[in-house]
Amino acid sequence: MVRTPSATNDDWTGLFDGQRTAGLRAYGGDDFPADHWRIGGGRLSAIPGPGVDLVTNETFADFELEFLWAVASGGNGGVIYRVIESDQPSWASGPEYQILDDAAHADGVDPVTSAGAVYDLLAPGAGKRLASVGEDNIGRIVVRDGSVEHWLNGDLIVAYEWAGPDVRAKIAASKFRDLPDFMAAETGHVVLQHHGEEVSFGSIRIRPL
């Protein structure tokens, strides 16, 4: 079944419309990295191999992001937000909406690193519904007034407070604890992570809130 995001509104900005990207470039670069990402068949796809992330030209504080995503068998990727672009990798500053084939990737065993999780920090709730490998899921991230939501196929699966004591305690006990920029910025870029494996996106759009 083909899944599509909700109806369009004038305040949305398209980042990928199935044929072309707008406002996306290589993380740490100026141009679209055509050797690492391909556009074809209505998809924006990571080419397996050495990864180069895609980053928005613009930065966002409060926003709503909708995206269609699919994975090949064993696929792994992510959408990272409020990223500080620097000589450090994108995950060193922003939390990640995990994109994963839960059934065939080792990260799928642990809920906190499974699809839809705030990677390595917060697990999605019970009853998460994933499309079959190769089929589209609807991802949605909402950041507003200090609250963050991860949605998957119409269901709210993770909700947390950006500066809340719970998530800050989890950061302090995680591999991110020694990264001074991690979740330090309240405005930042959105990144499509290239993890070296095949993932693809359909339509992607964003609007400030």
Which characteristics define this entry?
209 residues; mainly beta; five-stranded antiparallel β-sheet; 13 strands
Instruction: Give the termini separation.
Output: 30 Å
Q: How can the largest sheet be summarized?
A: 8 strands, antiparallel
CATH class: Mainly Beta
CATH architecture: Sandwich
Structural commentary:
It is a single chain. By secondary structure, the chain is mainly β. Helix content is 4%, strand content 37%. It has one helix spanning 165-172, and strands spanning 13-16, 24-26, 37-40, 43-46, 54-56, 63-71, 76-83, 96-100, 137-144, 147-152, 155-161, 189-194, 199-208. The strands form 2 sheets. Strands 1, 3, 4, 6, 9, 10, 11 and 13 form an 8-stranded antiparallel β-sheet that branches. The protein has a 5-stranded antiparallel β-sheet with strand order 2-5-12-7-8, with no helix packed on it. A hairpin with a 2-residue loop joins strand 10 (147-152) and strand 11. The protein is globular and about 45 Å long.
Short description:
This protein is mostly beta strands and about 210 residues long. The protein is built from one helix and 13 strands. Helices cover about 5% and strands about 35% of the residues.
Could you give the topology of this structure?
Layout: E1 13-16, E2 24-26, E3 37-40, E4 43-46, E5 54-56, E6 63-71, E7 76-83, E8 96-100, E9 137-144, E10 147-152, E11 155-161, H1 165-172, E12 189-194, E13 199-208
Antiparallel strand pairs: 1-13, 2-5, 3-4, 4-13, 5-12, 6-9, 6-13, 7-8, 7-12, 9-10, 10-11
